[in-house]
């Protein structure tokens, strides 16, 4: 499954032209340029937007900001996602699930875990 998601935006014509020129002069696809700008201008700890400055080869600078929200966490977790969430090796979690100590289900040979059930289990409910 692709890690990419479609994003469709309408830009005012002057800004769309600036994006076209910037992508052309940097020899990047617009998608790659926007991705790089967003990735570079988020605080690495909080994912909060930082100030973005784009130089377009003229004397003028365009200053703006990125309004980005983190993706909602998935309701159903894979074994690897669960290991990241609870900071425990996947092998240990798989053994616990196999023993029935951890709430989860095997679907098509792969373990899946309901996020809410795992969080309740961690809280001891």
Comma- or semicolon-separated keywords:
alpha+beta, 125 residues, 41% helix, 2 domains, two-stranded antiparallel ribbon
Largest sheet: 3 strands, antiparallel
Please trace the helix and strand order, writing H or E for each element. Answer: HHEEEHHEEH
State the domain count.
2
Shape: elongated
Mean pLDDT reading: 81
What is the first-to-last residue Cα distance? 34 Å
Strand order of the largest sheet: 3-5-4
* Whole-angstrom Rg: 21 Å
List the helices and strands and how they pair.
Blueprint: H1 13-26, H2 30-40, E1 51-55, E2 61-65, E3 76-78, H3 79-86, H4 90-98, E4 105-107, E5 110-114, H5 115-123
Structure at a glance:
By secondary structure, the protein is of the alpha+beta class.
Overview of this protein structure:
By secondary structure, this protein is α+β, with helices and mostly antiparallel strands. It folds into 2 domains: 13-65, no CATH class; 76-123. It has 5 helices and 5 strands. The chain has helices at 13-26, 30-40, 79-86, 90-98, 115-123; strands at residues 51-55, 61-65, 76-78, 105-107, 110-114. Strands 3-5-4 form a 3-stranded antiparallel sheet. The protein has a two-stranded antiparallel ribbon with strand order 1-2. 5% of the residues are buried. The mean pLDDT is 81.
